[in-house]
């Protein structure tokens, strides 16, 4: 029972708005982060920089305009 519960919890966590989750997503729109021209994730994606917190656990990230790492262009 404990293994199936932890497996279900793992699947739920990886499908949430993370940088590279199971499904492609654009993050979560929260008004305070959108005012900073950013999106909320469980950690910033490659090519995004951390700006602030969204509701204590999410990270508000904005796209980098300069010095973009080459990993952004990988498939």
Automatic annotation (TrEMBL):
Residues 1-21 form the signal peptide. GO terms for biological process: antibacterial innate immune response; antifungal innate immune response. Keywords: Signal. The keyword Signal applies. One of its GO terms (molecular function) is lipopolysaccharide binding. The keyword RNA-binding does not apply. InterPro entries: DEFB136/42 (IPR035307). PANTHER family: BETA-DEFENSIN 136, DEFENSIN BETA 136. This is Beta-defensin 136. It comes from Ursus maritimus (Polar bear).
């Amino acid at each position: 029972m404990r293994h199936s519960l932890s497996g279900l919890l793992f699947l739920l966590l990886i499908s949430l708005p993370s940088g590279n989750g199971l499904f492609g997503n654009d993050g979560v729109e929260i008004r305070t982060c959108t005012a900073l021209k950013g999106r909320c994730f469980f950690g910033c994606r490659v090519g995004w920089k951390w700006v602030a917190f969204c509701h204590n656990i999410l990270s508000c990230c904005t796209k980098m305009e300069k010095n973009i790492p080459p990993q952004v262009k990988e498939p």
